[in-house]
């Protein structure tokens, strides 16, 4: 999070100075000042593009990245344009520059409000997906009990990390991390409950696989179900909805999935989802062999028709 904040500050400074340089070139009708300002603006915009690429590493969603950028760009254009127009005596440039700046500010405000809605995560707007049998939603305090119970089952945890079960405290920390991921990125792991009974039965959704640095930047789809719900096709059903969400609303272009060698059930789900085997490697966090699968947005869009997934934000 600290690195992400630093990148955002750098991006803000670059946009501010670039706007100042552009305004200076508007204010100077000719001569070296205009040439210097134009050259500076060009260099800063190139630098800004590089920072955006770095920021995209931390924010894999292109749509959310554009919201970040627009929210910052619009407001900071107004200040340098107005200051330079008046300090250089070229007040006539205000008539040209200020309307453009105000338009940019309005775009930034709208995108900023949209970004705030995403960060509100359940206060302003809660992401929920519905399938034939499942409701996928954000996490609630009452999920801790059944989630902790699921994570103390050795059968459920056999192929997770080093296979150790989790304590209730570790589960509480995990749920808090799941929610922070939603707030930071605009996507995450859904709590999964049955439509008929409203019982919590596990999770499915998207995350950044930080445990496997060689596969970054990427977004992973994963799932975990209570043992008594295995063999019913629920993981596949939930994962299809999560892929729709990732490629559709989030705007991802590629999603991976990772399973430990020996976990054939998860491998079969990945095949059902239309994913392709990419490569095998070692998970450095537990020294276990894993297999990486992938699917692109194009693959997903050209898949065979299936039942529609309903969703609301």
Task: Characterize the structure shown.
- The chain has 313 residues and is of the alpha+beta class.
- It has 2 domains: 2-120; 128-312, Gcn5-related N-acetyltransferase (GNAT) (Aminopeptidase).
- The protein has helices at 2-27, 32-58, 62-87, 92-120, 144-151, 154-157, 168-185, 234-250, 264-272, 297-301, and strands at residues 128-130, 134-137, 189-194, 200-207, 220-225, 254-260, 276-283, 288-296, 310-312.
- A 6-stranded antiparallel sheet has the order 5-4-3-2-1-9, with helices on both faces. Strands 6-8-7 form a 3-stranded antiparallel sheet.
- Strand 1 and strand 2 (134-137) form a beta hairpin.
- Helix 1 (2-27) packs antiparallel against helix 2 (32-58) and helix 1 packs parallel to helix 3.
- The two termini are 25 Å apart.
- Residues 56-63, 91-98, 114-125 and 307-313 have low confidence and may be disordered.
């Amino acid at each position: 999070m600290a690195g992400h904040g630093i990148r955002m500050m750098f991006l803000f400074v670059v946009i501010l100075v670039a706007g100042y340089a552009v305004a200076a070139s508007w204010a100077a009708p000719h001569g070296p000042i205009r040439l210097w300002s134009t050259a500076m603006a060009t260099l800063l915009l190139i630098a800004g593009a590089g920072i955006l690429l770095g920021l995209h590493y931390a924010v894999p969603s292109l749509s959310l990245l554009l919201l970040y950028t627009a929210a910052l760009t619009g407001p900071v254009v107004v200040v340098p344009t107005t200051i330079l127009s008046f300090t250089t005596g070229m007040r006539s440039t205000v008539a040209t520059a200020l309307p453009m700046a105000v338009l940019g500010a309005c775009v930034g405000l709208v995108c900023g409000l949209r970004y705030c809605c995403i960060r509100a995560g359940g206060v302003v707007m809660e992401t929920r997906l519905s399938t034939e049998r499942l409701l996928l939603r954000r996490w609630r305090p009452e999920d801790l009990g059944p989630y902790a119970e699921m994570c103390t089952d050795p059968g459920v945890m056999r192929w997770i990390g080093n296979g150790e079960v989790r304590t209730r405290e570790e589960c509480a920390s995990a749920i808090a991390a799941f929610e922070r991921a939603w707030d930071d990125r605009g996507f995450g792991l859904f709590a999964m409950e049955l439509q008929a009974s409203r019982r919590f039965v596990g999770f499915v959704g998207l995350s950044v696989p930080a445990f496997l640095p060689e596969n970054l930047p990427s977004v992973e789809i994963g799932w975990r179900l209570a043992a008594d719900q295995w063999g019913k096709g629920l993981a596949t059903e939930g994962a299809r909805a999560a892929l729709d969400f990732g490629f559709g609303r989030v705007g991802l272009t590629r999603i991976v999935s990772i399973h430990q060698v020996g976990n054939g059930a998860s491998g079969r789900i990945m095949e059902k989802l239309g994913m392709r085997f990419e490569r095998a490697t070692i998970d450095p966090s537990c020294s276990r062999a894993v297999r990486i699968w992938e699917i692109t947005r194009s693959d997903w869009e050209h898949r065979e028709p299936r039942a529609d997934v309903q969703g609301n934000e």
